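User: I need a structural model of phenylalanine--tRNA ligase from Tetraodon nigroviridis for a docking pre-check later this week. Nothing fancy, just the predicted structure tokens so I can convert them on my end. Input:
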Amino acid sequence: MSYMRYKYEWKLEEAQKNILRTHTTAVSARMLYKLAQVKFSPVKYFSIDRVFRNETLDATHLAEFHQIEGVVADYGLTLGDLMGVLHQFFTKLGITKLRFKPAYNPYTEPSMEVFSYHEGLKKWVEVGNSGIFRPEMLLPMGLPEDVSVIAWGLSLERPTMIKYGINNIRELVGHKVNLQMVYDSPLCRLES
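Assistant: Understood. Predicted structure tokens for phenylalanine--tRNA ligase:
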């Protein structure tokens, strides 16, 4: 079967190969499908999972990292609700300099990238992506038409860099971890 408008030859055996997950949205979709099988009531899902990317390693990129996934399903949720949840989440971590930038995601609309200012690097660093799930994704699952779902996928390592003033993300994993820094630093605590 040929799909030349996408400039590649689609093959069933290739599509059935296992791959390491690049994001956790598939888990969110599965949870929303399960939610649609019962009488709807508002829910919040939250997970932290490892994801894998074909990234060039540098001060802000890892090939493997942890993704913080959040999903809220309720009636009448808006982009303002999503921004408020993300602002509150980062504020509780002690990170208050945030920017939101419009973005494209195939499964959410509107979509936004989330940036936080890194004092040591003197630049804005992307810490996540977010959006409101598109009706085309929710309705086939069987969720009620008037239900909105806000969702986000955030890096765990980049906010950690910003909070603790670490300039190189590779210092958080593997052989470059400064064990004295780990010993001396308090565990990440939510600030009031």
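Before docking, keep this in mind: The chain has a mean pLDDT of 85.
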